[in-house]
Amino acid sequence: MAKNKPEGYLTAKESRKISRENRRITNQYEKERKRKNVPESEYVTTMHDPDNAVEFDNLHTYFFTDAGTVKSVDGVTFEVPIGKTVGVVGESGCGKSVTSLSLMQLIQRPQGQIVEGEIRLNLGDGRAYNIAKTPNEKMMNLRGNYVSMIFQEPMTSLNPVFRIGEQVDEVISLHNGEGKTKDDIKARSVELLKMVGIANSEGVYQMYPHELSGGMRQRVMIAMALACSPRIIIADEPTTALDVTIQAQILDLLRSLKDKINSSIMLITHDLGVIAEMADYVVVMYAGRVVEKGTVREIFSNPCHPYTIGLMASKPVVGKQVDRLYSIPGKVPNPVNMPDYCYYKDRCEMCVDRCAGEYPGEISLSPTHKVSCYRYYDGKGEK
Amino acid sequence: MSDQRTMIENEYTPVTYDPQYILMVNALKKYFPVKSGMIAKTVGYVKAVDGVTFNLKRGTTMGLVGESGCGKTTTGRTILRLSGEKTGGEVLFNGKEVYGLSNKEMRDMRTKMQIIFQDPFSSLSPRLPVGEIIGEAVREHNLVGKAEFEDYIDQIMDRCGLQPFHKDRYPHEFSGGQRQRICIARALALNPEFVVCDEPVSALDVSIQAQIINLLKDLQEQYKLTYLFISHDLSVVEHISDTVGVMYLGNLVEYGETADIFRNPLHPYTKALFSAIPIPDPDAKMNRIVLEGTIPSPANPPSGCKFHTRCANCMEKCKQEAPKQKEIEPGHYVVCHLYDDL
């Protein structure tokens, strides 16, 4: 058999050419980012709707890799209202995590860059920051105080060589530590550990991460995220690594804490059960784009995009017996080489003729329910 | 030494072989010694599996559920004689005591019982091409002649949804779902009767999970396989299993037909476990029983019923006396003092 080149094969020469080009582009972005004394007018804006905590507006986050440009997030628009929980669902690699990392400005630079769009973060005094343009020193203030994140793996996101207490103290002293003595900070840390339901909080303060179970570590992560009462909590798969019983405890905890400090949660997960239980609004992502969004009732009682329907049918549900699970045929298209028609067309079983055309625009089924699919174009006269 | 020996009680009534069961597990125990000090003296035991009893019918699937650290995986491995010697009890596979076989007999037995591991990323050798991964054991056991070998591998790959021309590729070239298919193909190539599936879908995406579950079910019908399906995802277990066993801290606390267990869970732990499943319906009523605290250490389990520290219906009796297995409905067993009077 002749050695045929697999799809996406690059010669070393082609690869070098791409990386040269990438360096040119990323250097440009980095230069802009490294400027000193950026005038406020460049990144201070106003919210379109003052009731929103965050607005993602046509966000594009690209990664410039040696194999080509990966459009991880390609035109994502949605809002997180104040005091609500927004669930983001999708398969791995669909850009859910990159969206949230963009909000924290924690993308791996210089390869990863926000190339277009705005993320408006409500500061609460009528102003808003456009995160895409905010300089680093301002970002330091925002992280922890306004936005904070609970990471997916409690096993790997705590530092194994520092005691739990030191790690929680650090968050407080960095973001909220002015005029506080060491004892004040310690008292606050112990209080936080107590708040997240750790019974022996004084003892845990002195422990190392390896002495704690997975559920306890996740609680410590939550305590660190909540240390400065942020307005937005990004929970990136907070329960995926945990058992069902512990998952139930953590979800209860998140819900009650959210109400206590009146913040919004952006919940990223692939478990539809968790979404149904926690979220007020749902955003379904596929291959870097939002395919459907709406309130949790609209999405679960009337899923419209074929991908959402497929996703729901492929998960077995307790109490509902089916002979065979539905499985979505095919696989996610190559992220370097996205087709120019609807990304889901090749796997879709409900295609119509128009699907061969350009990527479908968003269409409103109700004021809150929006879907990007040609199947719903007939009823409405849009586009 | 004498007091250590008394720590491991070896009391069980031997079972008689019943041909309808492919696997009979009776009071199986597996303890891991905890060593400490300069001369590595054994100071105690982690009781990973502490008296598990169940029978598995030919051609059916048994689901084994429980929290992490409750001994599900150790049970699976101990049945296959993969983790050294057992500590006590019996494992009868087709009527033969697995731990009583000589090395040579065990080698032959290995082709009849296989395992699919949890993580398809670490359980495939990165240095072997896929065809070799699947075929290595086939060649070792001389299952097919040299002439038919290549055809046989092609056939197996085809059945598991892999392209036979991928034979020369290496595992890193495949996605998670395809790798899990390779693991399944590797297990099935030996033509086994019994397969332990140790969380085969936990590491996969939802849509890939469905493909793998469907594949496992199809293969079961084709080859009349018997599965022991270990998972902590209860909805998957309900979908695939005929019988379910619920484990807590090394003990099987409840065991019965899937429909019975899910419709009418009896043990307080099973009830709590099932109420914790998130239901993908925003209007669903939540009557959640939240278990307080965490699972106790299996090195130093609570006295009496091991669940009494977290149980909502704990009685005085539970703290002193370990409950015995009782049959409540036909084929539905529970280990709990609440049902002593029935």
Characterization of the model:
The complex is a heterodimer of chains A (383) and B (342). Chain A is of the alpha/beta class. Chain A has helices spanning 12-34, 96-104, 136-145, 164-176, 182-195, 201-205, 214-226, 244-261, 272-278, 296-301, 306-313; strands at 44-45, 52-65, 68-81, 85-89, 112-122, 128-130, 147-150, 232-236, 264-269, 281-286, 289-295, 363-364, 370-371. Chain A is globular. Chain B has helices spanning 2-7, 72-79, 103-110, 130-140, 149-159, 176-188, 206-223, 234-240, 258-263, 268-275, 316-320, and strands spanning 21-36, 41-57, 61-65, 88-93, 96-97, 113-116, 194-198, 226-230, 243-248, 251-257, 325-329, 332-335. In chain B, helix 6 (176-188) runs parallel beside helix 7. The longest helix of chain B has 18 residues, at 206-223. The two termini of chain B are 42 Å apart. The interface between A and B is large, with 46 and 40 residues.
Topology, pairings included?
The complex is a heterodimer of chains A (383) and B (342).
Chain A: H1 12-34, E1 44-45, E2 52-65, E3 68-81, E4 85-89, H2 96-104, E5 112-122, E6 128-130, H3 136-145, E7 147-150, H4 164-176, H5 182-195, H6 201-205, H7 214-226, E8 232-236, H8 244-261, E9 264-269, H9 272-278, E10 281-286, E11 289-295, H10 296-301, H11 306-313, E12 363-364, E13 370-371
Helix pairs in contact in A: 4-5, 4-7, 5-7, 7-8
Chain B: H1 2-7, E1 21-36, E2 41-57, E3 61-65, H2 72-79, E4 88-93, E5 96-97, H3 103-110, E6 113-116, H4 130-140, H5 149-159, H6 176-188, E7 194-198, H7 206-223, E8 226-230, H8 234-240, E9 243-248, E10 251-257, H9 258-263, H10 268-275, H11 316-320, E11 325-329, E12 332-335
Parallel strand pairs in B: 3-8, 3-9, 6-7, 7-8
Antiparallel strand pairs in B: 1-2, 1-4, 4-5, 9-10, 10-12, 11-12
